[in-house]
Each structure stands twice: as structure tokens, then as C-alpha cells.
């Protein structure tokens, strides 16, 4: 061993020793299992391991996270919740009420979360004034992904209105492409539906329908129009859509079989993983008719009470890591989302992320920033489930009547309020 390697070994041992003394384990429940999303999750694992802790991956496949939430409930009931779980929006309050979450105020104070986070975000992460969850990112749900080469071959134009969207779909269909890549799963059906609601009812109508759950809005003529648009859109998906995972649908657009996909910006993780470049190989457009507005979906890790001290330290280090600028860059570059820190340097991010950040800030100031219903930000999981049922039944019923669907939507929500 030469003098230099002796020195570096000594330095790295000195660096590791205090960490090893407090090494703990963090078990993290999430559903980031697609190729692109796994790359993002791996960045967190790596940073946690660099702090000397061990990572226990608790990944439950299933886009939208319904399966993950079911498994989490079982684990919590048996008294063995993981250290951290991806729990979002109003659900954080429900877990807080059960008394199962731990507070992260120490880390939050040390890192200055109150100053770093947008106020709307900080509020969601707190239960009775205490931080119980750490925000990971901000996803935007109202996106349309298109393959420009397919569009060129079909002579279609990138749409900015719903009329143009259907005109493009018609051209893609005539040219033999799948116009819209879709996965027939309830959360995906409702993702598309909520974008249509956003487009047809506008930000104010969206808020009235999904946040206030106002009956007149839920049953009104605009909601009927949104259901009618959903029915029309269904004419442009392929026969094999039933049950398809969202990332397989993204794959159809990437490999040029389909022209478009309506999906949140986690879809970008698949494009990035395939080595494709935003603005060149693919385009991200605000969902037609929702320009300047932003349906947000904030991923967050809620932390459960633990008894082991080393594991508690590992949990606090996990929270600290998630809020670090380094993680916010690594993770979100892979995940397709934007960082949650207001002071984050965005220079490494692509055109889609840059415009997402600009729209996020603009929408925050003009009422256009709205919580996603399909992704558990606008209402409880009970309301979300009720909407999923009505939307998916309507979507799969060739006789589905938009007027009746709007009535059913209001009734289903009322039943679980
Ligand atoms: C969302 C989640 C995203 C992404 C997506 C697809 O609910 O917030 O991070 O994972 O599901 O599974």
C-alpha cells in the first residue's frame, strides 16, 4: 500500500466510523417499479446507503399506488409498518389521526423546510402543525405526450384545444397508428377524465367539482360535456388497452406505434430511460385547453413511529436526504417531476421540466394550481375510489350516457362524504 492509498483509506475510515456507529435500516414502501421510475428510486437508495444505513426496499407494483396502500394497511394493522411510505395528500391526515406517524420537526427546523417549501405543500406534510411527511417532488398531471415523427407521418398537428386533439386523433387513425396509447385501469381512466374536466370546466370548475364536491357542478352541463368527451376519446384507443400498465402505453408512443398519451410527467421517466430527448424525440404539451394551469401530484414519504434508536436516526437521515438539493436534482431528473424546493437550481433540467416549473409558479398565483383527484391530492381515498368506479364503468360501457354518468358521479361522492 503506498502512502497515498494509506492516506485515502485512513480518511475514508475516519469518515465512515461515526456513521457506522449509528447505522440503521430504513424500509421504504413505494410503487416506483417501472424501468424509469426504478432508476429514480435507486438514487434515493444510493444516497441513504452512502450515509451508512441499509435500505430495505418495499416496492409494491401497480401504478397509482392502490395495491401499495392495501398492503400498507395490512402491515400497519399487524403493528409492523415500514419506516417510510409513499402516502399523499389528505391521506396523510388520516394516518396522522391514527397516531402512527412520527414527527420530523427536528430535521425540518435544521434544514428550514418552512422557508424552502411552497406554503401549500408544507401544509399537506403537517399533521396538527408537526411535519410527519417529507415531500419528494411535484408531478404535473395535465400533460399530453406526443411522438413528433408519428405526427409528421400522419400529417397531424400538435393540438392546443380539444377540437384540435380530436382532429389529430382522426389523422393518426387514418394513417394506421393507434391515436391514443392508453392503459385500461381505473386510475388511468380517471387521469384522462380529470384532464378533460380541467379542460372543459376550467380551473374554477375543477376546484368546485373535485375539491368542494359541489353537487351543481358535478351534475352540470359542463360535467356532462366532459363525460361526452371521454366517450369520444375512447374511440381512439386500441382494442388491447384493457389492463395495460401505464409504462407499456408510454412504450407504444416511444416505439412509434401510437401517436399520443395522456399521462402525468412520470411518463417522462420512461422516455428518459429510453435515451430520448425532450423537444426532439418527443414533445410534452399541456393537455389541450389547460395551458397555464397545473394539476399537481406531490409524492411524499410519511414516516411511521419506530422504537429502535438507530432506525430512527436512519429515518431522520432519509428525510434530510430527500430535501437535499442533490437528491432533488438526481431523483427528479430521472422521475420526470420537478423539485419541491423553491430555491432549486433548474439549469440541468430539460424543456418539459423548465416549462412545468414556470407554469407551477404562474398557476400558483392565478388560481390555476389545482390538486389532482386521480392521484389522491384533492380528496380522501374514499372519494377518489367513488370517482374511479363511476368513470371506469362509464368508460367501459358502450351504452354509457354522459348525463346519467354525471348524476352517478355526484351520488357516488355523496355516499362516501
Ligand atoms: C402516481 C405517483 C407517481 C407515479 C404514478 C404512476 O400516483 O404519484 O409518482 O408513480 O403514480 O405509478
Automatic annotation (TrEMBL):
Q: What Pfam families would the database entry show?
A: SBP_bac_1 (PF01547)
Briefly state the protein's biological role. Part of a binding-protein-dependent transport system for a sugar.
- Where do the TM regions start and end? none
Q: What is this protein called?
A: Probable sugar-binding periplasmic protein
Localization, UniProt = Periplasm
Q: Which residues form the signal peptide?
A: 1-23
Q: Which family does it belong to?
A: Belongs to the bacterial solute-binding protein 1 family.
Gene3D superfamilies for the chain? Periplasmic binding protein-like II
Q: What SUPFAM superfamilies is this protein classified in?
A: Periplasmic binding protein-like II
Q: Which InterPro entries match?
A: Bact_solute-bd_prot1, SBP
